[in-house]
Specification:
By secondary structure, this protein is an all-alpha fold. It contains 4 helices and no strands. It has one domain. Helices cover about 70% and strands about 0% of the residues.
Length: about 100
């Protein structure tokens, strides 16, 4: 059963990339969090480390939030495409959408 499902739907590809291209917002935030990261590693005994870490964690939280929003938008788009088709084609459209992994 597992092989027939993999044959019909396909297998999801693993993402090895750590670079997220979910738009300019994520890229900008990712670039912005690098400066505090380097300062934290360079000045490990500094009093400002807690402040830097708090600011960096806030930026990382914003990145995570934006990536979740993008994933939800993508899922909503796929669901809309599937539900907009005729009833007898929905199963095939769903399988195609899952297989394409776009």
């Amino acid at each position: 059963m597992k092989t027939s499902a993999a044959y019909k739907v396909g297998e999801l590809k693993r993402r090895n990339s750590t670079q997220h291209t979910a738009g300019p917002t994520v890229t900008e935030l990712s670039e912005h969090q690098r400066a505090p990261k380097l300062k934290i590693y360079q000045h490990s005994k500094s009093k400002d480390r807690a402040t830097l870490q708090k600011g960096r964690n806030n930026i990382l939280w914003l990145i995570s939030k934006r990536l979740k929003e993008v994933a939800v938008e993508e899922a909503d788009t796929r669901a809309d495409q599937i539900t907009s088709t005729d009833d007898y084609l929905k199963m095939f459209r769903a399988a195609k959408q899952l297989r394409s992994n776009k």
